[in-house]
Amino acid sequence: MGQPAQPGQPQPPVWVNLVPMVLLIVVFYFVLIRPQSKKAKDHAAMLKTVRRGDEVVTSGGIVGEVVTVKDRTLVVRSMDAKFEVNKSAVSEITKRGSESGES
């Protein structure tokens, strides 16, 4: 396979050497890039649905209840402290708050 072509033998076409590279790129796309972009899209959708009363966990590990939702930040109450954190720092919503008496 790795032997140089002898005089009189035809060399394989150039595309034969490109096939393994193309297959490698396709595998990288389906194994690494596509799942990561899907996860980012799901996280962005989750951040759009954050509302007052939700219990959230930040990427720093703070667990608290959302008090105020702004454009880019949230005010989160955890025990007796209030924190203003970026929305992007919210890693998950653990419990949805009830909107039933606030409308």
Biggest sheet details: 5 strands, antiparallel
Whole-number total of structural domains: 1
- Rounded to the nearest angstrom, the distance between the terminal CA atoms is 73 Å
CATH fold topology = SH3 type barrels
What best-fitting shape do the alpha-carbon axes yield?
rod-shaped
> In CATH's first tier, which class applies?
Mainly Beta
Query: In CATH terms, what is the architecture?
Result: Roll
> Rounded to an integer, what's the Rg over CA atoms?
26 Å
**Number of strand segments:** 5
Helices and strands, with pairings:
Layout: H1 14-48, E1 55-58, E2 63-69, E3 73-78, E4 81-86, E5 90-95
Question: What does this protein look like?
Answer:
It is rod-shaped, with a radius of gyration of 26 Å. Strand 1 and strand 2 (63-69) form a beta hairpin. It starts with 13 loop residues before the first helix and ends in an 8-residue tail after the last strand. The chain contains one helix and five strands. Helix content is 34%, strand content 28%. It has a single domain (14-95), classed as Roll (SH3 type barrels), CATH 2.30.30. The model has no long low-confidence stretch (mean pLDDT 87).
